[in-house]
Amino acid sequence: MQFDAAVIGGGPVGAAVALELQAAGLSVLLLEARETRELPGDERPIALSYGSRLVLERLGVWDRLQDATQIARIHVSQRGRFGRAVLSADEARLPALGYVVNYGTLASVLDSALAEAEARGGLQVRRGARVVSMAHDRASAHILFESRSGPDECYASVVAVADGNAEAAGVEVRVVQYDQTALSGRVDTDLPHANTAYERFTPDGPLALLPCGSGYAVVWVNSPAVAEDLCEAAPTVFLAALQAAFGDRAGRFTRVTARASHRVALRVAAHPTAGRAALIGNSAQALHPVAGQGLNLGLRDAWEFASEIRKRGPTAPALLEAYEARRRIDRFGAIGFTHGVVKIFSNDWSPVGFARGVGLTLLDNFPPAKDFVIRRMIFGARG
User: Fold this and answer.
1) Domain ends where: 249, 265, 281?
2) What is the model's pLDDT at position 109?
């Protein structure tokens, strides 16, 4: 089998790049390890920036996310210390700063779009396909994979690795362990959320409340032992701990559901390209969940990878070098920002806490700086 492009991984980032390349008139093969399109009810909260909404609109799928909850304001503070900043869509002259959806809903919508694109032609989706190896020459990549029917292979002029497996492309990955676990869930309060999100920094890790439906999605980063205990605690115990950590700004917490947890680490590929392959999304970088930058950065990877192919063609010798150069500032900016925030705001030393408070206060009272931060978080380095 010979294709213009192959995409490894059919999650949201892989699906986005496959849909855009098929729309550009290329022949595309998508290899996805999942056997079927049906997804379990994955209720992990995902914060999509307004910039990601624009990408999904261009792919023709945004209108299917009917349950997306708008984020109109973000309130940033630190527990037990002075200083706060409020970022708003009105000040940024945008319809919204972002939106909150379930990961399972987003993945299901994109799966449906892949099935429709496959029916139109130009895109082939092979499910239950696990990549075994990849080799490159100057003009193409040779991919060996295991499928339902046994060993198989294909050739592609260019490859997007989007399944989080950078090792499959032969790329070295640097891992930073934070010794933290992110706990997610849904909580109700006795006050309406008014489309306000909260990012509250504690010595143990950030605590985010994201407006979701009539309540909030919570993403609470803590030490692994504490997070495990909170995940398994009785609802009343969990709600009391959350109230103590967050305070009463959002009202009284009354109910919690859908708790889950996962360990947090930073994974960065040394180079986002290798041979005829580009790493995008979690294959290139898996970030700390603070500020919700990971998936949004991945969708920008997908869009700009497809844009370079549209401009140069899938066989262009300098294609991948151009893509790597185009993504360098945005990629390392997001990595540095999230890693720096974790290190600075997880320090309970009083002078550092005072400096953080001063910084938040200055940000809140200096509109040009606030606008700069908002636009980099929403649109990336290109602002």
Assistant:
1) 265
2) 94
